[in-house]
Amino acid sequence: MAGYDRIRRRETDVAGGKNGEEEERLRGALLTERKTLFSSQRGTFSTGIAPRKDSKYTSHEEKKFNNGDYLSRVLRVFRPSPNHFLVHLKIIFNKDSRWVPPPSVQSQLTTPISCDRSNERYDFCSLNGPSFLDPTTSTFLVVDSSSSTRQPISEKVRPYPRKWEKDIMSHIKELILTSSGTPISTPCDVWHNAPALVFSAGGYTGNLFHDFNDGFIPLFVTATANSIVSDRNLVLVIANCRNWWLTKYVELLSRFTNYPIINLDNETATHCFPSASVGLISHGYMTIDPTLLPHSETFLNFRTLLEAAYVHGQSPPTARPRLVLVSRSGGVGRVIRNQDEIARAAEETGFEVSIFEPTQYTSLSEAYGLINGSHAMIGVHGAALTHSLFLRPGSVFVQVVPLGIDWLAETCFGKSARDMGLEYMEYKIRVEESSLVEKYKRDDLVLKNPKAVVKEAWLKTKEIYLKDQDVELDLARFGKYLNKAFKKAKRFMDKEA
């Protein structure tokens, strides 16, 4: 095992690198050691894996198959122990597109499918070996040649991290995961040298908050937990995937993968992967818990990913701090009735004000350019405040909190704002600033004790405090918050200059 010992020593050296140039040199030495080990194992490993000539998505992968990069990249992603390496990577691929582990390691194979269903938010399943996808039946099959007597494993999973909501989950495509003790008779149409990550873009997709809370933040957590984000060596397989959603988020999705995305709803070709993960790991509402990640990644790391996806040049210099006022209109609730007056007050305070009212069709790239280039952002609680993720650390974020939604305001945007290093402020309206005074008497619990009403039922929160309530801000009172926000934003702007 001398070769493995050298690799371990190199990995230790890489972990202790003191600067980028030194780390790059050490990583090169590590890769050389791995390739040396692969060369010595050519009798065991089949590294000259060529995709079928009629395969889709593989023209850019063919060189990687033929030079052994398949194995080196898998090792780099998963960092397995020597035994794990022997168990999972000693795989011979037959010419007829079937695969069988060598007899010498068949007895060492682990459980082909393992599922963690202990979390209240999500199920997460791992396919621990060569995995065959038949998209026409939404089925993944894993070859299990470790035991001819072991009973086949069968699991079903809906890969969306809101499993406590039975109604929503009923609309998420159910995937079937099975194991087989014999080689698969159906040939693969498409070969991949990267593992698959499978999830659903269904559920509440279309609402920006849920797109991030139930989609991209868990995707970041899941990819980061497997150390995949940095080199993007995974294939995204997405169920309930609508074309408009792919178009809207194409820049962000490209930061997770180097390969074309497989839309499980439209795909008909069979695919083969070295392994697969099904589901997304969620740490909670708008949460990235660094204690649960390998390198203690935080929301700042996610913010860096967004910056890479929507990178813009520096905004031109400005004499006044830029403020984005997030607008709502129509019958959606939580509209600022005196928005024009608030905008004028902000201008008089010293801000350069931009009104921003996003829709489902708003370009994320344009939104990022506007908000990333600003120094402050103000808005009433709602999905549009998810754009606060585009603010630079040090920017000012003021969330206007209507009656009855204190918990939502903190959970959805307050905590994440602080985690990103924003100067976060809350403006909690008073009863007289709520439109609910026009509908309820002053001694009604709706106005007198919103916490009691919210505690009774979520439906009342949604119907009364989210949909039925607009706000009219007290100009004198809110003006004090504008002054504080301006001072913080000006300090941030001057520090940048």
From TrEMBL:
Q: Which keywords does UniProt give here? A: Glycoprotein, Glycosyltransferase, Transferase
Glycosyltransferase 61 catalytic domain residues: 304-398
Q: Determine if Glycoprotein is one of this entry's keywords.
A: yes
Region described as Disordered: 1-23
Specify where it is mainly localized. Golgi
State a single Gene Ontology molecular function.
pentosyltransferase activity
| Pfam families on file | Glyco_transf_61
The membrane topology term of the UniProt record is: Single-pass type II membrane protein
Q: Where is the composition biased (Basic and acidic residues)?
A: 1-13
Q: Does Glycoprotein count among this protein's keywords? A: yes
Q: Which domain of life is it from?
A: Eukaryota
Question: Where in the cell?
Answer: Golgi apparatus membrane
A single GO cellular-component term on record: Golgi membrane
* Name the record gives this protein: Glycosyltransferase 61 catalytic domain-containing protein
